[in-house]
Amino acid sequence: MKITPLGIWGAYPPANGATSAFLIEEEGFRCLVDCGSGVLSALQTHIPLHELDALVITHYHPDHIADVGVLQHGVMIETMLDKRDRQLHVYAHANDEDQFSNLQYGKYMRATAISPQQTETIGPWHVDFCETDHPVYCLALKFTDQHGVSAVFTSDTAWTPNLLPFIKGSELLISEASTYHHMIDQIPGHLSGRQAGQLAHETGVERLVLTHLPQYGNINDLVAEAKDVFFGEVTLADPAKTYRVGKG
Ligand SMILES: [Zn+2]
């Protein structure tokens, strides 16, 4: 699978940036993970909107869903223009019924409820879910290809041992790193760079990519923090790069 960061910032986007989203592609199937502020614009620098097949939402904080409304409009208008010939499938948890029902959009977008109890087949992948430790109900995602190679997205979370067995055995960990370790007590519900490194170390992944980055401080310090405890490859998520997992 090919993974492209579209939005790497937590909370709000800087000029010409975007908050949380990744594009995942394999065998011509294209899936968006989260749809934060600025993401619809960033997405279209990679693919035309009508080529998007699915969207997975991890939780309903604005920096993960801000662009869902404009995505709905885009899908509707491109369908009316005969550019798009199918529904967009949206996967999200239904613990917040109002937010979940808002994802359904006429005949244009169809929402499917996801939960840690059930593996979902989305395009060429099996996708598993794990509850994180966050002020609102939030799911980490594990995408596994047909050869059993997987990548995990932590989404938003504080340190929780729940994630360890979920991540173990994955090739790539894309972890949030919302703040610096000396500030972690001030930012509840999130990880520091060092804690992201600890997740990678304790689960034995090969590579760690840090995302959901803070607008303050020197973000390269997050990499240094992670490298203090994890000896594999550590990088900041970079929208100019793509990350390959497995053969696809
Ligand atoms: Zn959040």
TrEMBL record:
GO molecular-function terms, A-Z: 3'-tRNA processing endoribonuclease activity
Coiled-coil parts of chain: none
SMART domains: Lactamase_B (SM00849)
SUPFAM superfamilies the record matches: Metallo-hydrolase/oxidoreductase
Alphabetized UniProt keyword annotations: Hydrolase, Zinc
Location of the Metallo-beta-lactamase domain: 18-190
The name this protein goes by in its record: MBL fold metallo-hydrolase
Species per Swiss-Prot/TrEMBL record: Salicibibacter cibarius
